Amino acid sequence: MDITTECIPLGHIQTYFDLRKSLVLEADWLQKKSLMNLNNPGEILENIIGLNQEEFYRNAGIDYRPGESDRFISAKQTVALVDQAVQALDMPYLGLAMGNLMTISHHGMAGVAAVTQPTLKTCLDTIHRFCMELFPPLEMTGFVGDSEAAFVIDEVISLAPYTHFFLELNMVSFYNIFQHLVAGEYELTSADFSYPEPAWGHIYRRYFRCPVRFNQPQTCLRGSPELGDYELPLANRLMAMSAEKNLFENIPTKAIRFLPLRLRRLLVRYYGAFPSLENAASELGMSGRTLRRKLAEDGTTYQQELDRVREKLTREYFARGGESITEVALMLGFADSSAFAKAFRRWTSMSPSEFLERRAGPDDGSNATPLNDNL
Q: pTM for this structure?
């Protein structure tokens, strides 16, 4: 699965990535930008970007037909949609603005199913499942440890050069939804981004009341471990089940069918006691020979996928405050710390100790390139 793989349901993109629904809320700004009267929201794309909806999709290589939602588009095509909007509006921080305008309703039935879960932890688990199916270029994971809780967003398929757009949009959107759900009872400790501060970094601080940090090991929202058990005010198990059923009846998905992604998810479950290729193949319902062949057809190998999983788990270990190189090496099934250090340098072009030193340094924009987000 890569940037050209058609794995994103067009119907999902239409539920929240419709600029006409999002940008119309900033009426004053739009009127100044477009010099037009915004009585008709449907005119926004045509008047500001100079395109009607059909042309907007067509210019991204999407053979769009009005009312069509049972097809898939690629990460490359999705990035092309973003590029049109950012260039036409001359607004590099568009992800922040759109994320701030998005409400639960913009996430459609996925949003309803998530916020009607019993607790914040089950809400994050639901978001994780939906993201895997509805927008596989990103992975969203919630975890609760002894000292903190976090909602982490990783890049699975490259969204360059607009990675920041998708991370900005989702970080701001989920931060606002969090604020709505907890109604001021909690504040997050930080909003972390895994890339250097962009030229518009000062604008980030308009959207987050908590500290904003760049050059961090992960892109995530961090908070108290007590948040995991926080009971959501909209909890309604019947509504959650109904919303999820409605979601997948109306929006087909196929990300789960991609073998490399299925293999990575299987390996993550083992966390260190990784199965052999033959055992992994058996769990996936095929022979080892078939698994090798199918992975080769996707341009990868079992070892490459195992390395991606190990890199991801290493990144999470360090992000949670872990510092023992020996401990993480043993946890991930390496023979010794030197074998782990060699692999770590291959992944990141630095040694584990160098990474830990730079992670502990001041957030002045001069930190090293963060760990590679390839999983």
A: 0.71
What pLDDT does residue 83 have? Answer: 92
Q: Tokens 């006691």 identify what position? A: 273
Positions of E strands within the chain: 6-9, 72-74, 138-144, 149-155, 190-192, 212-213, 219-223
CB 255 within 8 A of CB 7: yes
pLDDT of residue 199: 95
Query: What is the percentage of the chain residues whose pLDDT exceeds 90?
Result: 32
Listed residue (34, 196, 164) closest to 92, CA to CA: 164
CATH 1.10.10.60 in the chain is located at: 258-360
198 vs 103, which has greater pLDDT?
Answer: 198
CA dist list (Å): 174 to 10, 194, 195, 212:
21, 17, 19, 15
- Rounded distance between C-alpha atoms, residue 8 and residue 73, angstroms: 5
Q: How many helices (H) and strands (E) does the chain have?
A: 19, 7
Superfamily covering domain 258-360: Homeodomain-like (1.10.10.60)
Q: What distances in angstroms separate CA 350 from CA 13, 118, 334, 354, one per listed residue?
A: 37, 42, 18, 6
Between the two ends of the chain, the Cα-to-Cα distance in Å is: 11
- Evaluate if residue 24 carries a pLDDT over 60: no
Name residue, tokens 């895994």. 194
> Residue 368: what pLDDT?
36
368: DSSP letter:
P
What average pLDDT score do residues 121-136 get? 89
- CA separation for the pair 291, 279 (Å, rounded): 11
SS3 140: strand
What gap in Å lies between CA 359 and CA 229, rounded to an integer?
Answer: 29
Q: At 281, which amino acid appears?
A: A
∠ CA 47-67-140 to the nearest 5 degrees? 85
